[in-house]
Amino acid sequence: MDELDKVQAVALQGAAAARAVQALRDQAAVWGLTLPPAPPFACDFGLGRFDEIGEVEVWIANEAAAGYCGKFLFVKDGQTCPLHCHRVKHETFYMVKGEVRMVCGGVTRVLRPGDVLPVAPGVQHAFTGIGPALLLEVSMPCVLEDNVFADARIPIGAKAAGAASE
Fold first, then answer.
1. Which of 8, 72, 140, 162 suits a disulfide with 89, CB 3.0-4.6 Å?
2. Are the beta carbons of 134 and 125 closer than 8 angstroms?
3. pLDDT per position in the chain (166 positions), as tens?
4. CA 145/CA 19 separation, integer angstroms
5. Domain spans of the chain?
6. Would you say 123 and 111 are in contact if contact means Cβ atoms under 8 Å apart?
7. Which residues fall within 8 angstroms of residue 29, CB to CB, at 6 or more apart?
C-alpha cells in the first residue's frame, strides 16, 4: 500500500467528504485556477471535526524514488491543519491564494499570496485559513510515519514522545 492509499484510508468519507471536495472545486473556479487531475480528498486527521481541524489535499506527486512531493492544501476560513512536525521531511510552502495564519517554530505570521516559507525537519508548524486559502507544499516525499502530531489523538504518524521541537 502506498502513502496516498494509507492517507485516503483514514480520510473523511461520504457526503461530508463530497461537500469538502466540492468546496475546493468551487473556490478554485472563483479563483480561476485549474486543479491537477489527481483526486482531491478531505483529511480530518481522524478527529471527526473536519470543519475545525482538516484540509482538502490534492497530491500532485509523491515520487519517493525521485525524492520529491508536491501537494495542494486547501483550508476554509477558520479551518486548521493541526500542529505537527516531521522527523525527516523538509518542506516549503508557497501561498497560492488567500491567507493563512501560520505558526512555525513558535512564531505566528500571516502568509499571503506569493509568500514562501521553508520548514526544516523537527520544526512544529500549523496553519489556519483566514478565509479560503490554497497552499502549495513542495517537499521531500510524504511518508505518513514521518509525521509527528502534537495531538496524540490523531491516529496517523509517529507518536509525539520527544520527537517534536520548536
1. 140
2. no
3. 588 777 777 788 899 999 999 999 999 999 999 999 999 999 999 899 999 999 999 999 999 899 999 999 999 999 999 999 999 999 999 999 999 999 999 999 999 999 999 999 999 999 999 999 999 999 999 988 899 999 999 988 887 544 444 3
4. 28
5. 3-149
6. no
7. none
